[in-house]
Protein backbone atom coordinates (compact mmCIF):
# COMPACT_ATOMS: atom_id res chain seq x y z
CA UNK A 1 0.00 0.00 0.00
CA UNK A 2 1.32 3.37 -1.01
CA UNK A 3 1.84 6.35 1.25
CA UNK A 4 -0.94 8.12 -0.59
CA UNK A 5 -3.42 5.41 0.26
CA UNK A 6 -2.25 5.27 3.82
CA UNK A 7 -2.81 8.99 4.13
CA UNK A 8 -6.15 8.64 2.47
CA UNK A 9 -7.22 6.12 5.09
CA UNK A 10 -6.46 8.76 7.72
CA UNK A 11 -8.28 11.57 6.01
CA UNK A 12 -11.62 12.55 7.56
CA UNK A 13 -14.54 10.83 5.92
CA UNK A 14 -16.12 13.99 4.55
CA UNK A 15 -13.44 14.65 1.98
CA UNK A 16 -12.71 11.01 1.30
CA UNK A 17 -14.40 9.05 -1.47
CA UNK A 18 -17.30 7.10 0.00
CA UNK A 19 -16.92 3.36 -0.36
CA UNK A 20 -13.15 3.65 -0.63
CA UNK A 21 -12.65 4.47 3.00
CA UNK A 22 -11.09 1.84 5.15
CA UNK A 23 -11.79 1.81 8.77
CA UNK A 24 -9.03 1.45 11.18
CA UNK A 25 -9.83 -0.94 13.94
CA UNK A 26 -6.10 -0.84 13.82
CA UNK A 27 -3.97 0.45 10.99
CA UNK A 28 -0.76 -1.04 12.33
CA UNK A 29 0.13 -3.52 9.63
CA UNK A 30 -1.74 -6.52 8.27
CA UNK A 31 -4.23 -8.29 10.55
CA UNK A 32 -2.30 -11.55 10.60
CA UNK A 33 -4.57 -13.41 12.97
CA UNK A 34 -7.57 -12.85 10.72
CA UNK A 35 -5.81 -13.74 7.50
CA UNK A 36 -3.79 -16.70 8.71
CA UNK A 37 -6.54 -19.38 8.80
CA UNK A 38 -7.60 -18.67 5.23
CA UNK A 39 -4.06 -18.35 3.91
CA UNK A 40 -2.92 -21.52 5.68
CA UNK A 41 -5.93 -23.43 4.34
CA UNK A 42 -5.29 -22.21 0.80
CA UNK A 43 -1.56 -22.91 1.02
CA UNK A 44 -2.25 -26.48 2.05
CA UNK A 45 -5.29 -27.48 0.02
CA UNK A 46 -5.29 -25.05 -2.93
CA UNK A 47 -1.64 -24.36 -3.75
CA UNK A 48 -0.71 -27.92 -2.80
CA UNK A 49 -3.13 -29.56 -5.26
CA UNK A 50 -1.99 -27.18 -8.03
CA UNK A 51 1.62 -28.21 -7.37
CA UNK A 52 0.50 -31.84 -7.41
CA UNK A 53 -1.09 -31.41 -10.85
CA UNK A 54 2.08 -29.80 -12.23
CA UNK A 55 4.42 -32.39 -10.67
CA UNK A 56 2.36 -35.37 -11.77
CA UNK A 57 2.23 -34.06 -15.33
CA UNK A 58 5.97 -34.70 -15.70
CA UNK A 59 5.99 -38.20 -14.19
CA UNK A 60 6.44 -41.38 -16.12
CA UNK A 61 3.39 -43.33 -17.13
CA UNK A 62 0.97 -44.89 -14.65
CA UNK A 63 2.52 -43.83 -11.40
CA UNK A 64 0.41 -42.77 -8.47
CA UNK A 65 3.30 -41.76 -6.25
CA UNK A 66 5.70 -38.92 -6.92
CA UNK A 67 9.37 -39.34 -7.73
CA UNK A 68 10.39 -35.79 -8.47
CA UNK A 69 13.93 -36.55 -9.64
CA UNK A 70 12.69 -38.89 -12.34
CA UNK A 71 10.78 -36.61 -14.66
CA UNK A 72 9.76 -36.70 -18.29
CA UNK A 73 7.76 -34.67 -20.76
CA UNK A 74 6.29 -37.80 -22.32
CA UNK A 75 2.68 -36.98 -21.39
CA UNK A 76 2.93 -33.54 -23.00
CA UNK A 77 4.56 -35.06 -26.07
CA UNK A 78 1.72 -37.54 -26.41
CA UNK A 79 -0.91 -34.80 -26.20
CA UNK A 80 0.84 -32.48 -28.66
CA UNK A 81 1.55 -35.34 -31.06
CA UNK A 82 -2.07 -36.51 -30.80
CA UNK A 83 -3.48 -33.02 -31.32
CA UNK A 84 -1.25 -32.29 -34.32
CA UNK A 85 -1.69 -35.61 -36.09
CA UNK A 86 -5.42 -35.78 -35.36
CA UNK A 87 -4.98 -39.40 -34.34
CA UNK A 88 -6.69 -40.66 -31.23
CA UNK A 89 -9.01 -38.44 -29.25
CA UNK A 90 -6.90 -35.32 -28.66
CA UNK A 91 -7.68 -33.52 -31.91
CA UNK A 92 -11.38 -34.03 -31.41
CA UNK A 93 -11.24 -33.23 -27.70
CA UNK A 94 -9.38 -29.95 -28.25
CA UNK A 95 -11.74 -28.94 -31.02
CA UNK A 96 -14.83 -29.87 -28.95
CA UNK A 97 -13.56 -27.99 -25.93
CA UNK A 98 -12.77 -24.81 -27.81
CA UNK A 99 -15.99 -24.89 -29.84
CA UNK A 100 -18.13 -25.58 -26.77
CA UNK A 101 -16.48 -22.91 -24.60
CA UNK A 102 -16.46 -20.28 -27.35
CA UNK A 103 -20.06 -20.98 -28.38
CA UNK A 104 -21.15 -20.98 -24.76
CA UNK A 105 -19.50 -17.59 -24.18
CA UNK A 106 -21.06 -16.04 -27.28
CA UNK A 107 -24.55 -17.44 -26.67
CA UNK A 108 -24.45 -16.55 -22.98
CA UNK A 109 -23.43 -12.99 -23.91
CA UNK A 110 -26.18 -12.56 -26.50
CA UNK A 111 -28.83 -13.94 -24.15
CA UNK A 112 -27.60 -12.14 -21.01
CA UNK A 113 -26.90 -8.65 -22.26
CA UNK A 114 -30.53 -7.61 -22.88
CA UNK A 115 -31.53 -9.22 -19.58
CA UNK A 116 -28.77 -7.42 -17.67
CA UNK A 117 -29.66 -4.17 -19.40
CA UNK A 118 -33.35 -4.57 -18.55
CA UNK A 119 -32.55 -5.46 -14.97
CA UNK A 120 -30.25 -2.47 -14.48
CA UNK A 121 -32.23 0.22 -16.27
CA UNK A 122 -35.84 -0.86 -16.87
CA UNK A 123 -36.87 -2.87 -13.86
CA UNK A 124 -38.18 -0.92 -10.89
CA UNK A 125 -40.88 -3.14 -9.43
CA UNK A 126 -40.30 -6.78 -8.47
CA UNK A 127 -36.53 -6.29 -8.77
CA UNK A 128 -35.69 -8.41 -5.73
CA UNK A 129 -37.90 -11.40 -6.69
CA UNK A 130 -36.40 -11.34 -10.19
CA UNK A 131 -32.85 -11.26 -8.82
CA UNK A 132 -33.67 -14.14 -6.46
CA UNK A 133 -35.16 -16.21 -9.27
CA UNK A 134 -31.97 -15.69 -11.28
CA UNK A 135 -29.71 -16.72 -8.40
CA UNK A 136 -31.57 -19.76 -7.09
CA UNK A 137 -30.52 -22.29 -9.74
CA UNK A 138 -26.85 -21.57 -8.92
CA UNK A 139 -27.21 -23.27 -5.59
CA UNK A 140 -28.51 -26.59 -6.82
CA UNK A 141 -25.90 -29.22 -7.63
CA UNK A 142 -24.68 -29.02 -11.23
CA UNK A 143 -25.32 -32.69 -11.83
CA UNK A 144 -28.90 -32.41 -10.59
CA UNK A 145 -29.65 -29.45 -12.86
CA UNK A 146 -28.07 -31.10 -15.87
CA UNK A 147 -30.03 -34.25 -15.11
CA UNK A 148 -33.16 -32.06 -15.15
CA UNK A 149 -32.28 -31.16 -18.74
CA UNK A 150 -31.93 -34.82 -19.59
CA UNK A 151 -35.47 -35.41 -18.31
CA UNK A 152 -36.62 -32.43 -20.34
CA UNK A 153 -34.97 -33.51 -23.58
CA UNK A 154 -35.25 -37.29 -23.31
CA UNK A 155 -37.63 -39.32 -25.52
CA UNK A 156 -41.19 -38.82 -24.27
CA UNK A 157 -39.84 -36.28 -21.83
CA UNK A 158 -41.20 -32.87 -20.97
CA UNK A 159 -40.12 -31.30 -24.26
CA UNK A 160 -41.79 -33.99 -26.37
CA UNK A 161 -44.97 -33.54 -24.36
CA UNK A 162 -44.94 -29.75 -24.85
CA UNK A 163 -44.08 -30.01 -28.55
CA UNK A 164 -46.66 -32.77 -29.02
CA UNK A 165 -49.40 -30.74 -27.35
CA UNK A 166 -49.05 -28.05 -30.00
CA UNK A 167 -48.76 -30.61 -32.76
CA UNK A 168 -45.03 -30.32 -33.34
CA UNK A 169 -42.81 -33.27 -34.02
CA UNK A 170 -39.26 -32.06 -33.53
CA UNK A 171 -36.39 -34.45 -32.99
CA UNK A 172 -34.73 -33.84 -29.66
CA UNK A 173 -31.19 -32.52 -29.62
CA UNK A 174 -30.15 -34.80 -26.77
CA UNK A 175 -26.77 -36.58 -27.12
CA UNK A 176 -25.36 -33.99 -29.54
CA UNK A 177 -22.84 -31.18 -29.15
CA UNK A 178 -25.75 -28.70 -29.22
CA UNK A 179 -27.20 -30.37 -26.15
CA UNK A 180 -23.87 -29.97 -24.36
CA UNK A 181 -23.76 -26.28 -25.30
CA UNK A 182 -27.33 -25.88 -24.06
CA UNK A 183 -26.18 -27.39 -20.75
CA UNK A 184 -23.12 -25.17 -20.40
CA UNK A 185 -25.02 -22.01 -21.41
CA UNK A 186 -27.61 -22.94 -18.82
CA UNK A 187 -25.14 -23.59 -16.02
CA UNK A 188 -22.90 -20.56 -16.63
CA UNK A 189 -25.43 -17.95 -17.82
CA UNK A 190 -25.64 -16.21 -14.40
CA UNK A 191 -21.85 -15.73 -14.41
CA UNK A 192 -22.28 -13.58 -17.54
CA UNK A 193 -25.49 -11.87 -16.51
CA UNK A 194 -24.44 -10.56 -13.09
CA UNK A 195 -21.12 -8.90 -14.02
CA UNK A 196 -22.83 -7.12 -16.93
CA UNK A 197 -25.76 -6.15 -14.70
CA UNK A 198 -23.37 -4.73 -12.09
CA UNK A 199 -21.36 -2.74 -14.60
CA UNK A 200 -24.50 -1.24 -16.18
CA UNK A 201 -25.85 -0.43 -12.69
CA UNK A 202 -22.74 1.59 -11.88
CA UNK A 203 -23.28 3.94 -14.82
CA UNK A 204 -24.23 7.32 -13.41
CA UNK A 205 -27.76 8.36 -14.39
CA UNK A 206 -26.64 11.98 -14.74
CA UNK A 207 -24.43 10.92 -17.64
CA UNK A 208 -27.47 9.70 -19.56
CA UNK A 209 -29.44 12.81 -18.59
CA UNK A 210 -26.63 15.04 -19.82
CA UNK A 211 -26.51 13.12 -23.08
CA UNK A 212 -30.28 13.46 -23.45
CA UNK A 213 -30.07 17.21 -22.78
CA UNK A 214 -27.45 17.48 -25.49
CA UNK A 215 -29.85 15.85 -27.90
CA UNK A 216 -28.69 12.23 -27.93
CA UNK A 217 -31.53 9.82 -28.63
CA UNK A 218 -31.99 6.54 -26.79
CA UNK A 219 -30.09 4.58 -29.40
CA UNK A 220 -27.18 7.00 -29.37
CA UNK A 221 -27.09 6.98 -25.56
CA UNK A 222 -26.92 3.21 -25.65
CA UNK A 223 -24.17 3.00 -28.26
CA UNK A 224 -22.02 5.87 -26.93
CA UNK A 225 -22.48 5.51 -23.18
CA UNK A 226 -23.98 2.26 -21.94
CA UNK A 227 -22.20 -0.10 -24.32
CA UNK A 228 -18.65 1.23 -23.73
CA UNK A 229 -19.14 1.65 -19.98
CA UNK A 230 -20.46 -1.90 -19.60
CA UNK A 231 -17.33 -3.30 -21.22
CA UNK A 232 -15.64 -4.33 -17.94
CA UNK A 233 -18.70 -6.40 -17.06
CA UNK A 234 -18.73 -8.01 -20.48
CA UNK A 235 -15.03 -8.87 -20.21
CA UNK A 236 -15.34 -10.30 -16.71
CA UNK A 237 -18.47 -12.24 -17.63
CA UNK A 238 -16.91 -13.64 -20.80
CA UNK A 239 -13.72 -14.73 -19.03
CA UNK A 240 -15.80 -16.28 -16.27
CA UNK A 241 -18.04 -18.24 -18.64
CA UNK A 242 -15.18 -19.28 -20.92
CA UNK A 243 -13.03 -20.58 -18.06
CA UNK A 244 -15.80 -22.32 -16.18
CA UNK A 245 -17.18 -23.99 -19.30
CA UNK A 246 -13.69 -25.36 -20.03
CA UNK A 247 -14.38 -27.46 -16.93
CA UNK A 248 -17.68 -28.81 -18.23
CA UNK A 249 -17.70 -32.52 -17.51
CA UNK A 250 -21.12 -33.48 -16.20
CA UNK A 251 -22.73 -31.56 -19.08
CA UNK A 252 -20.73 -33.59 -21.61
CA UNK A 253 -21.27 -36.85 -19.75
CA UNK A 254 -25.04 -36.60 -19.32
CA UNK A 255 -26.16 -34.47 -22.28
CA UNK A 256 -23.50 -35.72 -24.68
CA UNK A 257 -24.36 -39.27 -23.69
CA UNK A 258 -20.84 -40.63 -24.24
CA UNK A 259 -20.58 -39.25 -27.77
CA UNK A 260 -19.13 -35.82 -27.01
CA UNK A 261 -15.76 -35.60 -25.28
CA UNK A 262 -14.39 -32.40 -23.82
CA UNK A 263 -11.05 -31.69 -22.18
CA UNK A 264 -12.63 -32.01 -18.74
CA UNK A 265 -14.36 -35.30 -19.48
CA UNK A 266 -11.16 -36.61 -21.07
CA UNK A 267 -9.12 -35.57 -18.04
CA UNK A 268 -11.56 -37.28 -15.74
CA UNK A 269 -11.41 -40.37 -17.98
CA UNK A 270 -7.61 -40.41 -17.71
CA UNK A 271 -7.90 -40.40 -13.94
CA UNK A 272 -10.91 -42.63 -13.54
CA UNK A 273 -10.82 -45.44 -16.06
CA UNK A 274 -7.32 -45.51 -17.46
CA UNK A 275 -5.70 -44.55 -14.13
CA UNK A 276 -3.10 -42.52 -15.98
CA UNK A 277 -2.38 -39.65 -13.61
CA UNK A 278 0.51 -38.10 -15.58
CA UNK A 279 -1.52 -37.94 -18.79
CA UNK A 280 -4.55 -36.50 -16.98
CA UNK A 281 -2.36 -33.97 -15.17
CA UNK A 282 -0.64 -32.83 -18.35
CA UNK A 283 -4.06 -32.10 -19.86
CA UNK A 284 -5.11 -30.35 -16.65
CA UNK A 285 -2.03 -28.07 -16.68
CA UNK A 286 -3.27 -26.29 -19.81
CA UNK A 287 -6.64 -25.70 -18.18
CA UNK A 288 -4.89 -24.60 -15.00
CA UNK A 289 -2.84 -21.92 -16.77
CA UNK A 290 -5.82 -20.42 -18.58
CA UNK A 291 -7.89 -20.50 -15.39
CA UNK A 292 -5.28 -18.85 -13.20
CA UNK A 293 -4.61 -16.03 -15.67
CA UNK A 294 -8.33 -15.34 -16.22
CA UNK A 295 -9.07 -15.55 -12.49
CA UNK A 296 -6.41 -12.98 -11.65
CA UNK A 297 -7.58 -10.66 -14.43
CA UNK A 298 -11.17 -10.90 -13.16
CA UNK A 299 -10.16 -10.27 -9.55
CA UNK A 300 -7.97 -7.29 -10.44
CA UNK A 301 -10.90 -5.76 -12.27
CA UNK A 302 -13.71 -6.23 -9.79
CA UNK A 303 -14.12 -3.74 -6.98
CA UNK A 304 -16.01 -5.17 -4.03
CA UNK A 305 -16.77 -1.71 -2.63
CA UNK A 306 -18.39 -0.80 -5.93
CA UNK A 307 -20.51 -3.96 -5.84
CA UNK A 308 -21.48 -3.29 -2.24
CA UNK A 309 -22.59 0.27 -2.90
CA UNK A 310 -24.32 -0.28 -6.24
CA UNK A 311 -25.13 -3.94 -6.57
CA UNK A 312 -27.92 -4.15 -4.08
CA UNK A 313 -30.99 -2.04 -4.30
CA UNK A 314 -30.31 0.92 -6.49
CA UNK B 1 -54.05 15.22 -27.01
CA UNK B 2 -53.35 12.06 -28.88
CA UNK B 3 -49.57 12.54 -28.84
CA UNK B 4 -49.57 12.54 -25.08
CA UNK B 5 -51.43 9.23 -24.81
CA UNK B 6 -49.04 7.81 -27.40
CA UNK B 7 -46.18 8.78 -25.17
CA UNK B 8 -47.64 7.04 -22.16
CA UNK B 9 -48.48 3.67 -23.70
CA UNK B 10 -45.32 3.26 -25.73
CA UNK B 11 -42.86 3.26 -22.80
CA UNK B 12 -45.25 1.04 -20.88
CA UNK B 13 -45.30 -1.45 -23.75
CA UNK B 14 -41.52 -1.42 -23.98
CA UNK B 15 -41.14 -1.87 -20.22
CA UNK B 16 -43.59 -4.77 -20.50
CA UNK B 17 -41.45 -6.35 -23.21
CA UNK B 18 -38.30 -6.03 -21.07
CA UNK B 19 -40.10 -7.71 -18.17
CA UNK B 20 -41.33 -10.38 -20.57
CA UNK B 21 -37.77 -11.10 -21.65
CA UNK B 22 -36.63 -11.48 -18.03
CA UNK B 23 -39.52 -13.86 -17.39
CA UNK B 24 -38.34 -15.92 -20.37
CA UNK B 25 -34.83 -16.10 -18.91
CA UNK B 26 -36.21 -17.16 -15.56
CA UNK B 27 -38.37 -19.80 -17.27
CA UNK B 28 -35.23 -21.09 -19.02
CA UNK B 29 -33.36 -21.25 -15.70
CA UNK B 30 -36.25 -23.09 -14.05
CA UNK B 31 -36.84 -25.59 -16.89
CA UNK B 32 -34.66 -28.45 -15.64
CA UNK B 33 -35.78 -27.98 -12.05
CA UNK B 34 -39.44 -28.09 -13.08
CA UNK B 35 -38.72 -31.13 -15.26
CA UNK B 36 -37.25 -32.88 -12.23
CA UNK B 37 -40.27 -32.02 -10.14
CA UNK B 38 -42.67 -33.24 -12.85
CA UNK B 39 -40.71 -36.50 -13.19
CA UNK B 40 -40.66 -36.97 -9.42
CA UNK B 41 -44.45 -37.37 -9.41
CA UNK B 42 -44.54 -39.82 -12.32
CA UNK B 43 -45.66 -43.31 -11.35
CA UNK B 44 -43.87 -45.14 -14.19
CA UNK B 45 -40.71 -47.21 -13.74
CA UNK B 46 -39.36 -45.41 -16.79
CA UNK B 47 -40.11 -41.75 -17.16
CA UNK B 48 -42.52 -40.99 -19.98
CA UNK B 49 -45.26 -38.46 -20.27
CA UNK B 50 -48.21 -38.17 -19.85
CA UNK B 51 -48.18 -39.81 -16.48
CA UNK B 52 -50.06 -40.85 -13.40
CA UNK B 53 -49.50 -38.89 -10.24
CA UNK B 54 -47.81 -40.62 -7.31
CA UNK B 55 -45.96 -39.77 -4.12
CA UNK B 56 -44.48 -43.25 -3.93
CA UNK B 57 -40.97 -42.20 -5.02
CA UNK B 58 -40.82 -39.56 -2.33
CA UNK B 59 -41.78 -42.24 0.20
CA UNK B 60 -39.10 -44.53 -1.23
CA UNK B 61 -36.53 -41.74 -1.14
CA UNK B 62 -37.24 -40.95 2.48
CA UNK B 63 -37.32 -44.56 3.67
CA UNK B 64 -34.42 -45.97 1.62
CA UNK B 65 -31.53 -46.95 3.88
CA UNK B 66 -28.91 -46.10 1.26
CA UNK B 67 -30.39 -42.62 0.95
CA UNK B 68 -30.42 -42.28 4.72
CA UNK B 69 -26.76 -43.16 4.96
CA UNK B 70 -25.98 -40.74 2.11
CA UNK B 71 -27.85 -38.00 3.99
CA UNK B 72 -25.90 -38.93 7.09
CA UNK B 73 -22.51 -38.63 5.32
CA UNK B 74 -23.57 -35.39 3.68
CA UNK B 75 -24.51 -33.86 7.02
CA UNK B 76 -21.26 -35.01 8.60
CA UNK B 77 -19.45 -33.11 5.83
CA UNK B 78 -21.72 -30.06 5.47
CA UNK B 79 -22.01 -29.06 9.11
CA UNK B 80 -18.25 -28.81 9.77
CA UNK B 81 -17.75 -27.17 6.36
CA UNK B 82 -20.39 -24.56 7.20
CA UNK B 83 -18.85 -23.77 10.60
CA UNK B 84 -15.25 -23.72 9.36
CA UNK B 85 -15.86 -21.73 6.22
CA UNK B 86 -18.07 -19.21 8.03
CA UNK B 87 -15.37 -18.55 10.63
CA UNK B 88 -12.47 -18.54 8.15
CA UNK B 89 -14.34 -16.56 5.50
CA UNK B 90 -15.63 -13.97 7.97
CA UNK B 91 -12.15 -13.47 9.40
CA UNK B 92 -10.83 -12.94 5.88
CA UNK B 93 -13.64 -10.50 5.11
CA UNK B 94 -12.95 -8.45 8.26
CA UNK B 95 -9.23 -8.37 7.45
CA UNK B 96 -9.97 -7.19 3.92
CA UNK B 97 -12.71 -4.67 4.66
CA UNK B 98 -11.74 -3.20 8.05
CA UNK B 99 -7.97 -2.84 7.81
CA UNK B 100 -5.66 -1.02 5.49
CA UNK B 101 -2.33 -2.70 5.01
CA UNK B 102 0.35 -3.39 2.45
CA UNK B 103 -0.65 -6.07 0.00
CA UNK B 104 -4.34 -5.84 0.79
CA UNK B 105 -5.35 -6.21 -2.89
CA UNK B 106 -3.02 -9.20 -3.28
CA UNK B 107 -4.68 -10.77 -0.27
CA UNK B 108 -8.07 -10.34 -1.96
CA UNK B 109 -6.81 -11.91 -5.19
CA UNK B 110 -5.23 -14.91 -3.50
CA UNK B 111 -8.15 -15.41 -1.13
CA UNK B 112 -10.85 -15.28 -3.79
CA UNK B 113 -9.01 -17.10 -6.59
CA UNK B 114 -10.49 -20.57 -5.81
CA UNK B 115 -13.96 -19.27 -6.74
CA UNK B 116 -12.81 -18.96 -10.35
CA UNK B 117 -11.44 -22.47 -10.70
CA UNK B 118 -13.52 -25.11 -12.43
CA UNK B 119 -14.41 -27.48 -9.61
CA UNK B 120 -13.28 -30.54 -11.51
CA UNK B 121 -9.75 -29.10 -11.59
CA UNK B 122 -9.80 -28.47 -7.84
CA UNK B 123 -11.19 -31.94 -7.21
CA UNK B 124 -8.54 -33.69 -9.31
CA UNK B 125 -5.65 -31.75 -7.82
CA UNK B 126 -6.91 -32.31 -4.30
CA UNK B 127 -7.35 -36.01 -4.96
CA UNK B 128 -3.70 -36.41 -6.05
CA UNK B 129 -2.50 -34.13 -3.25
CA UNK B 130 -4.44 -36.19 -0.70
CA UNK B 131 -2.69 -39.29 -1.96
CA UNK B 132 0.81 -37.74 -1.98
CA UNK B 133 0.56 -36.13 1.46
CA UNK B 134 -1.05 -39.13 3.09
CA UNK B 135 -4.16 -37.10 3.92
CA UNK B 136 -6.15 -39.89 2.34
CA UNK B 137 -9.83 -39.96 1.46
CA UNK B 138 -13.01 -39.81 3.45
CA UNK B 139 -15.02 -37.38 5.54
CA UNK B 140 -12.12 -35.23 6.82
CA UNK B 141 -10.40 -34.67 3.43
CA UNK B 142 -13.80 -33.88 1.89
CA UNK B 143 -14.39 -31.29 4.63
CA UNK B 144 -11.01 -29.64 4.02
CA UNK B 145 -11.50 -29.71 0.26
CA UNK B 146 -14.95 -28.14 0.31
CA UNK B 147 -13.82 -25.52 2.83
CA UNK B 148 -11.15 -24.36 0.35
CA UNK B 149 -13.82 -23.53 -2.21
CA UNK B 150 -16.55 -22.29 0.15
CA UNK B 151 -14.54 -20.04 2.55
CA UNK B 152 -13.72 -17.57 -0.27
CA UNK B 153 -17.41 -17.44 -1.19
CA UNK B 154 -18.32 -16.64 2.42
CA UNK B 155 -15.57 -14.01 2.44
CA UNK B 156 -17.09 -12.48 -0.68
CA UNK B 157 -20.62 -12.39 0.75
CA UNK B 158 -19.55 -11.03 4.16
CA UNK B 159 -17.24 -8.46 2.53
CA UNK B 160 -20.13 -7.07 0.54
CA UNK B 161 -22.18 -6.47 3.68
CA UNK B 162 -19.16 -5.30 5.73
CA UNK B 163 -18.31 -2.69 3.10
CA UNK B 164 -21.77 -1.26 3.66
CA UNK B 165 -21.01 -0.54 7.32
CA UNK B 166 -19.84 3.01 7.95
CA UNK B 167 -16.27 2.91 9.36
CA UNK B 168 -17.00 6.07 11.33
CA UNK B 169 -19.05 3.98 13.74
CA UNK B 170 -15.93 2.03 14.75
CA UNK B 171 -13.96 5.25 14.86
CA UNK B 172 -16.55 6.68 17.21
CA UNK B 173 -16.45 3.60 19.43
CA UNK B 174 -12.68 3.86 19.61
CA UNK B 175 -12.83 7.54 20.49
CA UNK B 176 -15.22 6.64 23.29
CA UNK B 177 -12.57 4.32 24.69
CA UNK B 178 -13.60 0.89 23.37
CA UNK B 179 -10.72 -1.56 22.88
CA UNK B 180 -10.40 -3.73 19.77
CA UNK B 181 -12.17 -6.71 21.32
CA UNK B 182 -15.12 -4.58 22.43
CA UNK B 183 -15.36 -3.01 19.00
CA UNK B 184 -15.60 -6.47 17.44
CA UNK B 185 -18.02 -7.89 19.96
CA UNK B 186 -20.35 -4.95 20.45
CA UNK B 187 -20.04 -2.94 17.23
CA UNK B 188 -18.72 -4.69 14.15
CA UNK B 189 -20.05 -8.23 14.49
CA UNK B 190 -23.63 -7.20 15.34
CA UNK B 191 -23.61 -4.85 12.35
CA UNK B 192 -22.53 -7.55 9.90
CA UNK B 193 -24.44 -10.38 11.62
CA UNK B 194 -27.00 -10.64 8.83
CA UNK B 195 -24.25 -10.92 6.24
CA UNK B 196 -22.53 -13.65 8.27
CA UNK B 197 -25.73 -15.65 8.66
CA UNK B 198 -26.51 -15.44 4.96
CA UNK B 199 -22.89 -16.42 4.21
CA UNK B 200 -23.30 -19.43 6.49
CA UNK B 201 -26.50 -20.50 4.77
CA UNK B 202 -24.88 -20.14 1.35
CA UNK B 203 -22.01 -22.26 2.67
CA UNK B 204 -24.36 -24.97 3.88
CA UNK B 205 -26.38 -25.10 0.67
CA UNK B 206 -23.26 -25.11 -1.52
CA UNK B 207 -21.64 -27.84 0.55
CA UNK B 208 -24.80 -29.93 0.52
CA UNK B 209 -24.98 -29.57 -3.27
CA UNK B 210 -21.27 -30.01 -3.98
CA UNK B 211 -20.48 -32.78 -6.41
CA UNK B 212 -17.02 -32.47 -7.97
CA UNK B 213 -14.84 -31.93 -4.91
CA UNK B 214 -16.64 -34.49 -2.81
CA UNK B 215 -16.64 -37.08 -5.57
CA UNK B 216 -12.83 -36.94 -5.72
CA UNK B 217 -12.18 -36.91 -1.98
CA UNK B 218 -14.97 -38.95 -0.44
CA UNK B 219 -13.21 -42.31 -0.64
CA UNK B 220 -15.76 -45.01 0.16
CA UNK B 221 -18.28 -42.58 1.65
CA UNK B 222 -21.38 -41.88 -0.42
CA UNK B 223 -23.01 -38.46 -0.22
CA UNK B 224 -26.33 -37.40 -1.68
CA UNK B 225 -24.92 -35.88 -4.85
CA UNK B 226 -22.62 -38.81 -5.53
CA UNK B 227 -25.45 -41.25 -4.77
CA UNK B 228 -27.65 -39.44 -7.26
CA UNK B 229 -24.84 -39.28 -9.81
CA UNK B 230 -24.21 -43.00 -9.54
CA UNK B 231 -27.88 -43.73 -10.19
CA UNK B 232 -28.42 -41.21 -12.97
CA UNK B 233 -25.60 -42.50 -15.12
CA UNK B 234 -27.11 -46.00 -15.02
CA UNK B 235 -30.32 -45.02 -16.78
CA UNK B 236 -33.52 -43.90 -15.13
CA UNK B 237 -34.28 -44.66 -11.48
CA UNK B 238 -37.51 -43.01 -10.36
CA UNK B 239 -36.22 -42.31 -6.84
CA UNK B 240 -33.56 -39.95 -8.27
CA UNK B 241 -35.91 -37.13 -9.37
CA UNK B 242 -37.79 -37.43 -6.07
CA UNK B 243 -34.62 -37.11 -3.99
CA UNK B 244 -33.24 -34.36 -6.22
CA UNK B 245 -36.52 -32.46 -5.89
CA UNK B 246 -36.44 -32.82 -2.11
CA UNK B 247 -32.96 -31.31 -2.05
CA UNK B 248 -34.13 -28.51 -4.30
CA UNK B 249 -37.10 -27.71 -2.02
CA UNK B 250 -34.85 -27.58 1.04
CA UNK B 251 -32.21 -25.45 -0.73
CA UNK B 252 -34.91 -23.07 -1.94
CA UNK B 253 -36.27 -22.56 1.56
CA UNK B 254 -32.81 -21.94 3.07
CA UNK B 255 -31.79 -19.59 0.26
CA UNK B 256 -34.87 -17.44 0.68
CA UNK B 257 -33.98 -17.04 4.37
CA UNK B 258 -30.37 -16.18 3.44
CA UNK B 259 -31.38 -13.62 0.84
CA UNK B 260 -33.79 -11.92 3.22
CA UNK B 261 -30.97 -11.65 5.79
CA UNK B 262 -28.50 -10.25 3.24
CA UNK B 263 -31.02 -7.71 2.00
CA UNK B 264 -31.84 -6.62 5.54
CA UNK B 265 -28.13 -6.13 6.26
CA UNK B 266 -27.86 -3.77 3.30
CA UNK B 267 -30.62 -1.51 4.46
Describe this structure in a few short sentences:
The complex is a heterodimer of chains A (314) and B (267). With 314 residues, chain A is mostly helical.
What Rg of chain A do the Cα atoms give?
24 Å
Tell me which protein chains meet in the greatest interface and how many residues each side has. A-B, 114 and 112 residues
CATH level-1 class of one domain in chain A: Mainly Alpha
* Approximate helicity band of chain A: 55-70%
What are the key terms here?
heterodimer, A: 314 residues, mainly alpha, MetI-like fold, 0% strand, globular, B: 267 residues
Topology diagram in text:
The complex is a heterodimer of chains A (314) and B (267).
Chain A: H1 3-10, H2 32-56, H3 74-85, H4 90-122, H5 127-135, H6 142-153, H7 158-165, H8 177-201, H9 205-213, H10 218-229, H11 231-246, H12 250-255, H13 263-272, H14 277-301, H15 304-310
Helix pairs in contact in A: 2-14, 3-4, 3-14, 4-8, 4-11, 8-11, 11-14, 13-14
Chain B: H1 2-40, H2 56-63, H3 65-98, H4 104-112, H5 119-133, H6 139-162, H7 167-175, H8 180-191, H9 193-208, H10 212-217, H11 224-232, H12 239-266
Helix pairs in contact in B: 1-12, 2-12, 3-6, 3-9, 6-9, 7-8, 9-12
